[in-house]
Design goal:
Blueprint (H helix, E strand, L loop, with lengths): L12 E7 L6 H5 L4 H10 L2 E5 L2 E7 H19 L6 H10 L21 E2 L4 E2 L4 H10 L4 E5 L6 H15 L4 E6 L15 H19 L2 H10 L2 E5 L11 E5 L7 H8 L7 E6 L13 H9 L5 E5 L9 H11 L5
Parallel strand pairs: 6-10, 6-11, 7-8, 7-9, 9-10
Antiparallel strand pairs: 1-3, 2-3, 4-5
Helix pairs in contact: 2-4, 3-4, 5-6, 6-7, 9-10
Amino acid sequence: MSRKPVPARAGDSARLEITFERPQLLGRLFGEYDKNLIAIEHRLGVYISARGNKLQIEGEAEQAGRARDVLSGLYNRIVRGEDVDAGMVDAVIQMSSEPTLDGIIRNDVSAPPQVMIRTRKKTIVPRSPTQARYMEALGSADLIFALGPAGTGKTYVAVAQAVQQLIQGSVQRIILSRPAVEAGERLGFLPGDMKEKVDPYLRPLYDALYDMLPAEQVERRIASGEIEIAPIAFMRGRTLSDAFVILDEAQNTTPAQMKMFLTRFGQNSRMVVCGDPRQIDLPDIGKSGLADAVNRLEGIGEIATIRFGAADVVRHPIVGKIVQAYEGPDDA
């Protein structure tokens, strides 16, 4: 490595060393052309040099310590068989700045998180401090409002939790729903039967399911009714018992639709309502049902409200910057 060291503040510098027991894994830790190390250097203002199975970190003492914790955390994730990509690097750096999140995130971010979701195809671990709080709420609260921009994992993590509970037998079925706002009166002009008309609006929910379960299991469970994917209008008049129910794009419901949906709650059920209050596509018919419901229900003991921001975006890092540019600082 020939990168130029990042100067530390006078009187507050540190030089730390970390040794790795399995040097054959260091290529994955460093990333192609050392891109992971470069990302850590740029984000934390440190300089990292490698010799054999050792890394030396130079920089301001606190930041050098964070860099050591981040590298240990990423290395241990590789040992456990997890993929380390740019999003994971960014997430672990972000989590290292909040070391005392009720014991969920350790000071060295190197131990496996206490909350994780296991499905047939994936093990989901939190990739931001807010995701950790969200995953904890998914395991305890009866009703969860997940608010924030696209790319923060609101719906994806909820689907993973639903699949885990279905596999474990905690619930008997999964019900996934979205409002088909763009359809409206134009729905009748689209080709095909009702399923073919509304499926394009529900495609993101199918995509999440196929990430969690083998395709044949998804199709078999849909055919048997264990998994149901339908527009919100199909929920009217039902009581959803023994079910994990997810409403996506909830900002595009009216207050009347939201009240109808929430009152479907049945015995041994859990509901997750996901949406971005800043991305409302409703025509000029008044207030969003999501904002109305949060205003009315936030603070009730069995209900959790989790607010994500641009810093929680776990897609390509540039997505978080785009969200920040369009929406400004987080209001939460």
